[in-house]
Amino acid sequence: MGEIAGYPVRPGYFEDFGATLLPVGVNFTVHTHHGTSCELLLFHKGEEEPYAVLPFPASYKIGDVYSMIVFGLNIEEFEYAYRVDGPSNPREGLLFDRKKILLDPYARAVVGKHAWGEKLEGNYRARVVKDTFDWGEMPQSTRNMSDLVIYELHVRGFTEDPSSGVKHRGTFSGLQEKIPYLKELGINAVELMPIFAFDEEINAREVNGTKLLEYWGYNTVGFFAPNAAYASSEEYNKEGLELKKLIRALHDNGIEVILDVVFNHTAEGNEQGPSFCFKGFDNNIYYMLTPDGNYYNFSGCGNTLNCNHPIVQQMILECLRYWTVTYRVDGFRFDLASILGRNEDGSPLDNPPLLRNLASDPILSRVKLIAEAWDAGGMYQVGSFPASRRWAEWNGRYRDVLRAYLKGERWESWSAAWSISGSGDIYGGYGDDYTGNYAGYNSCVNFFTCHDGFTLYDLYAYNNKHNEANGWNNLDGHSDNRSWNCGAEGETSDPEVLKLRFRMIRNACAVLMCSRGTPMFLAGDEFGNTQYGNNNGYCQDNEISWLNWNDLEKNRGLFEFFKYMIAFRQEHRVIREKLPDAVCGMDPIHTHDTDAERTDIARDAMTFCVSFAGYDLDKGKDDLVYIAVNTYWEDVRITLPKVYGRVAWHMNVNTWGNGEGKYTWSDEEAPFIQHDFIMKPRSVVVFTGRV
Which of 226, 204, 192 is nearest to 111 (CA)? Predict the structure, then answer.
């Protein structure tokens, strides 16, 4: 025991990074490799000057780790931060400044701002969190990746618009109020855009009288802390409680939670950016630096985390373990994940240790790991991400090819057929055990839309992006959208254009839900949400990005179509995974053009078909699904496969409709189809075969 600044102290638990509440006090543990000394700062709430400064004695340091237990602290009465001294040599990447107040890299709660849009005053600090949340006997999900239907959403944008009708708009509680809606829709996984502590006020600016913020949240301040502005009330020393209640409620309703995590860069930016955390602890360890001490920028956001340095690897691994254990999340989607495979000099690694360690970690063994398999530095790894049979990928080729093909770019027919049937040409073939756990079909997350790009409605309402509101002269955002406005750019009252647009949306939905792989779509696509042609709404905290729930009633028929297609997919295992061979003799997967007796597709085919067949052991019968895609602007006759026995084909989905607004049929009412069928222009039809 000793005494520092009037507090009884003793050496702490050196392996427990961050601040940990103990029955007798608080354990503070932090590390710095190049730093020469460290001070713990204690603040009263809201005050900028510390009321106590506790230097770590030399005897409280082992290796590069400082650890101290401070007795007699009431966690409700203080906030904390650090100061670290050391050499200053920018060309060597050393930026130590003993005057800088630094946020704990392992902070469980970040202090300095709470309300959304509130500007940081002073410095970031941390609070000690008391975790008493009871998860009960809730088991960890064992649902296969291929069984998920993923719904990507922004916590604030999902309910911030008054039309959402929730009490706590733009918060975790507001999202929880919408769980009955999610259940009705039928999705079983939500992918939350970044919820780690971030500062939406960083880079805030005004364009034509509108304040623009870092709305999406891809600028992490603290990796271990939830974003305080997403809580409906301030959670003093219980930060994360509202998020935990949300996750438990989602789990109680059969919905998994996947977090979008950003380990490729931080909010500290480049040479002109602030220094409030990692730069002050060990700048040349946490960031990739050029030989002259500047920042590599493979993220496109100013800096790049040095993910394959052992110190950074350890932090990322401990972070993911923390969210898995303390928040019970079910998976992680890694933003610009190819950066995780870069060496310290930026070069790609053949077998990145971080990716291997995450894939084999025992705590993470059952969580989903999903990679955005590219980065802003030009590395593109779709189909070649170092998967270790554990990583799934956002299938960027699926998005690009099927966007192009459905709007009539016939030369994509081969790739489109491969994509619907599971992208086996880039992910491999079947597994041997029929479980769907082979890397081929368990690694493929199919999507048309995500937060980055057009909404599904805008995909068929705009030929060109319209990002003028972002203030960059419409130079930001992707230009290669493979979109089609169906005859009129933007808003229109032309009934024929609108009819075609909604048919194209139904086409995309039907194809997505009948494709092997894991489907994902953007929140609001199911009722025609628009961003008015803005395909890069990262800065738009307004009606451009918020969901307008009035469109749900306006486009109720579209919602019902999505709802039907999700249920249809869940009903037919053969879409999701390889089953034992079908008794009727059909091939497990068959692709062809308009004639089912042919086995090839013309390079420029405007129409093709894909069939899935297998024997469902649970149901004791064959499961047969046949999807036909016609991108031609005229009627096309197709012939259906011949099958053994008394199997007959029935039409469950026709995106053209019956002329009276009906596009789907239950098994009981599904029309029987003879050997051939005439498809209407630009339509998708789905058949099932049964006795």
Answer: 226
The SS3 of residue 50 is: coil
Read off the pLDDT of each residue in 163-177 and give the average, rounded to a whole number.
98
CATH fold for domain 571-690: Immunoglobulin-like (2.60.40)
Report d(CA 254, CA 615) in Å as an integer: 26
Quick check: is 372 catalytic?
Answer: yes
Could you tell me what percent of the chain has a pLDDT over 90?
Answer: 85
What DSSP letter does each residue of 431-478 carry, written as one string? Answer: -SSSSS-SHHHHSEEEES--SSS--HHHHTT-SS---GGGTSTT-SS-
CB 641 within 8 A of CB 611: yes
Name the active-site residue from 39, 177, 200, 372. Answer: 372
**Whole-angstrom Cα Rg for the chain:** 27
In the beta sheet, which residues pair with residue 229?
none
Residue 114's nearest CA partner among 45, 191, 194 is 45
Of the candidates 79, 235, 335, 412, the residue annotated as catalytic is 335
What does pTM read for this prediction? 0.96
What angle (nearest 5°) sits at the alpha carbon of residue 686, between those of residues 680 and 691? Answer: 125
E-strand stretches of 92-188? 94-95, 110-111, 125-126, 150-153
Please tell me the predicted confidence (pLDDT) of residue 217: 96
Asked if 45 and 92 count as a contact pair (C-beta separation under 8 A), the reply is no
Determine whether 335 is an active site residue.
yes
Cα dihedral sign for 548, 150, 426, 578?
negative
Separation between Cα atoms, residue 270 and residue 274, nearest integer Å: 8
- Of 262-271, 282-291, 436-445, the least confident: 436-445
Domain 2-126: which CATH number of 2.60.120.280, 3.30.2380.10, 2.60.40.10, 3.30.70.2190: 2.60.40.10
Whether domain 145-409+438-510+521-562 has CATH 3.20.20.80: the reply is: yes
How do residues 599-628 score in pLDDT, each as one tens digit?
789 989 999 999 999 999 999 999 999 999
- Whether the domain at 2-126 and the domain at 571-690 fall into the same CATH topology: yes
Contact by Cβ (8 Å): 217, 198:
yes
Closest CA to 689 of 673, 665, 669, 666: 673
Q: What are the backbone dihedrals phi and psi of residue 472, each rounded to the nearest 5 degrees, phi first?
A: -115, 25
Distance CA 416, CA 608 (A): 9
* pLDDT above 70: residue 554: yes
Domain boundaries, the chain: 2-126, 145-409+438-510+521-562, 571-690
Pairing of strands 65-71, 61-62: antiparallel
Mapping DSSP onto H, E and C, the string for 322-375 reads: HHHHHCCCCEEEECCHHHHHECCCCCECCCCHHHHHHHHCCCCCCCEEEECCEC
Locate tokens 């898995």: which residue?
324
Least Cα distance to 374 among 359, 353, 394 occurs for 394
Distance in angstroms (rounded) separating the CA atoms of residues 88 and 94: 5
* Tokens linked to 399: 């998005």
User: Between these two residues, 429 and 643, which has the higher pLDDT value?
Assistant: 643
d(CA 654, CA 405): 18
Distances (CA, A) of 545 to 87, 206, 299: 45, 17, 23
Going from the C-alpha of 76 to that of each of 21, 67, 290, the distances in angstroms are 11, 21, 43
For residue 99, give the 3-state DSSP assignment.
Answer: coil
Q: What is the DSSP letter of 64?
A: T
What is d(CA 239, CA 246) in angstroms, rounded to the nearest whole number? Answer: 13
Structure tokens at 349: 């690694």
